[in-house]
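Lab notes, practical 5.
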Amino acid sequence: MASNPRRRLAEVEKRKAASAADPAEYARGVLRAEAAAIEQLCARIDGDFSEAVERILACSGRVVVTGMGKPGFIAQKISATFASTGTPSLFLHPAEALHGDLGRLVPGDLVLALSNSGETEEILRLLPALKRLGAPIIAVTGGQKSSLAAASDVVLEIGPVPEACPLGLAPTTSTVALLALGDALAMTVLHRRGFSPEQFAELHPAGALGRRLLRVREVMRTGAANPTVSEDTSLRETAAVMSTVGRPGAASVVDDSGKLVGIFTDGDLRRLVQQDDVDFTRSVSAVMGRNPRTVGPDDLAVTAAEILREGQIDQLPVVDPAGRPVGLLDVQDLLSARLLG
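Output from the prediction step:
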């Protein structure tokens, strides 16, 4: 960045002229500057970064992320990333912390402080209190020669990155670099933890991945909502059992040992009516569907959805390892879980 005011003014005017002539090219220049800020971070990943990772992995409390102004918004995002990937975390506003929110910290917490200059007043005023509380401090800042860096246990540098702002004032490349380094830290911690897709899904139950990793037991119907009859039950009794629970319009049929031998659905009943072949005194075993497709309670719900889709069926018995029906899946259950479109 030019330090001479006249040179700075000339540069501003030059960039304004370029913007007026070709706004798209000017925007590309901003993106190139921000990309370069991230690229140069690769050379800064060193032993300090590894130490920061180890300290976070050893943290028995939460990773408390703080920052003021634009870095504060980046700090909120980094904290959210940690929290959603298996590392308990919260954002602490440094100004509010000076007025009581410091009480959010508990023993075992670690502080991740973001400040490009390393001289942010609100953060510097927090440092003595953080020291008294015994919270380790990891600084993410422009360089080693700042008050924040001097007071921190570990320093992660983003380096002297010129802002993409033509005035050299609005945080642009610096906040991009802070975010990228924070993401690199969170993802390295995730990798070291061996954080699995299943664990991710547990923290994102409403997300697409969470839905894909739902287990059958989480959406199946059980108890009274899982009609079960013996194979010698009359068709009349079977229809009565099915009607008492509404949907699903199906009953699992079991033998004397309780193992599934068939399924009778409202679709089967409609077909008998259309064929004028309804004898309600017959046993359900005479008209049930034999050898139905099944799933286990620990199978993925998406697997069950695919079976329903391929077989063009609406109900699917859920059986335990011994072949006993423990639940029933209805197509409506999977539609509600947004597993069928």
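Observations recorded by the TA: The CA atoms of residues 247 and 330 lie 8 Å apart. Residues 5-195 form a domain with the Rossmann fold fold (CATH 3.40.50.10490).
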